[in-house]
Amino acid sequence: MPALENRPFVKMNGLGNEIVVLDLRVDPVPVPPSEARALARRDVLPFDQIMALYPPRTEGTDAFVRIINCDGSESQACGNGTRCITLYEAGRVGREHLVFESVAGQLDCAMGPDGITVDMGVPHFGWHDIPLAGPVADTRAIELQAGPHEAPVLRAPAVVNVGNPHAIFWVDDTAAVDLGRYGPELEHHPIFPERANISAAQVVSPEHILLRVWERGVGLTRACGSAACATAVAAARLGLTGRRVTITLPGGDLLIDWRESDDHILMTGPAEFEFEGRLTRDMLSAPAGAATGAT
């Protein structure tokens, strides 16, 4: 019997970032990678991340969250998914302020008139914190490129950890970059021992950035909250923008405020319910070679 058989689920999305919420607090079980991959089949319940809620580990928190990508791997942070579970839990318990905990730390979340705000914590810029395979002089621009050696399409990304490792390449036109081609090789580049999220960012103005993301363990995605946060702080470090910026992804806009008082990143955006149901044996059992993933 599959571990997740007959468990209730809620399908949600944050800017088109497809999220499945599993509330496992009453009867906790692990989410087997094989069952996650089976569930993510395009003809079953395609998703970017599962947000699995477990009993709190720390007093004052609402749940411990494990984040599972559609390839079965585990992620440390998912900003869009965190907004989804905030909306889910706020509706369940009738509170506007929630606190979740993940392997990356605690996440303060609040419902507000302009959307759901998540405190994504403090970004990390040290090469060993990202992590990189070895020391680099300046993580605002590292030696890395993709495309022809004599005329690289992507080069000199900023790197930062916002729960997950991120590499941000600055481009003139995000639409002109074949991120589906270059994303996989850069995600798995040896310089990233834990792989990385790969972003192509176009600075429109000091208050506005266009962004497309190849997400680690997922692929091309309509939105990635932690990538938006990483891009905002990387742009501010380089003087390309201020500390408060709108990030426009294919799925819509996120407002990112890198708070000067304590360096915490506040991400504000929407989330919405789609439908709910129960997981069945057929949903959790994939034939060999089945395609997975939400795009």
Primary descriptors:
295 residues; Diaminopimelate Epimerase, Chain A, domain 1; 2 domains; 17-stranded mixed β-sheet; two-stranded antiparallel sheet; 19 strands
Give me the CATH architecture of the largest domain, please. Answer: Roll
What name does the CATH topology of the largest domain carry? Diaminopimelate Epimerase, Chain A, domain 1
- What's the total helix number? 4
Report the sheet-strand fraction: 35-45%
User: Sheet with the most strands?
Assistant: 17 strands, mixed
Principal-axis shape equals: globular
Assign the structural class, choosing from mainly alpha, mainly beta, alpha/beta, alpha+beta, or little secondary structure.
alpha+beta
Instruction: Work out the oligomeric state of the chains in this entry.
Output: single chain
> In whole angstroms, how far apart are the ends?
29 Å
Tell me how many strands there are.
Answer: 19
